[in-house]
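User:
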Amino acid sequence: MKKNLIVGFTGGIGRATAIALLNRGEKVVAFARDAKKAEKYSEGLTGIEIVQGDAMQIKDLEKASDGCSRLFYCVNVPYPLWQTSARELINVSIETAVKNKMKFVLPGNVYVYGHPQQSLINEGHPHAAHTRKGRIRIDMENMLIKQARDSDFVFTIVRFPDFYGPYVINGFYDKLFLSALKGKRLTWIGSLTVPTEFIFIEDAGEAMAIAGLSGKADNRMFNVPGYSETTAKEFLKELVKQSGKKSGISSLNIPFVIALAGVFDKTVYEFYEMLYLKSEKIILNGALFKSTFGTIPATSYSEGILKTLKWGKEIFGV
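Assistant: Predicted structure:
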């Protein structure tokens, strides 16, 4: 049986994809810079081979990809490093996939679309990014498209809204869950009332595995929505309810204040550019994915929040 290489295993989507593949009897090679962290992330999972290496070094990736037929690119680059590292990192993995004839599977996001031009965004929505990070994501996806056009390279892009769930540690959603467990105030950055959606990380991993393993997804892009349309306020109220504590809910939705904070914090500065995502209705249409594969993984918000809180108690020791 051929193996599946996950580049960026020590992240929410990398781990969730690995679980979905393992549940289907697939073999998984978990590639990570930090072997000890990878071992921690793989606790309770059987059938994973951990390979330590640097995703910037093609020799490390080539060694890890021996016997693999697919490469799931789940690398999470911190916002401040996107401009200097995002394109270079993915290019190394693309070169490895081309050389070893591996299918390339990428989790996409909505940055490429820019301001929404449809009430439900399908795969035909213009890629009209107005932000630096959105344009970088377009460049990354175009690298895959060009390679497929120029050779027998095969790719699939599975596009998601914001992730939440176990091992989603991005300095925002994980902090909300930790605050809820401690009964502290939950501060949302952006609008509390604009319609939005979130996807439970294990649903995203399922969608990655479904599309990644299927020839129906070759050289195609798919949008996968969250469980349902909601608002940040409704999501946070459910989080407070499930936590059993009495956290208050507030929002920081003044662009000037956020921009000012960005002067002193690079991560906040980078987040400021993407603030429109928290103030405009951006809902994905999953019709193509469902018609192609017959299903859309969808965990209810109440169930997903409960599972995440359980994980949070264990990981944070609360």
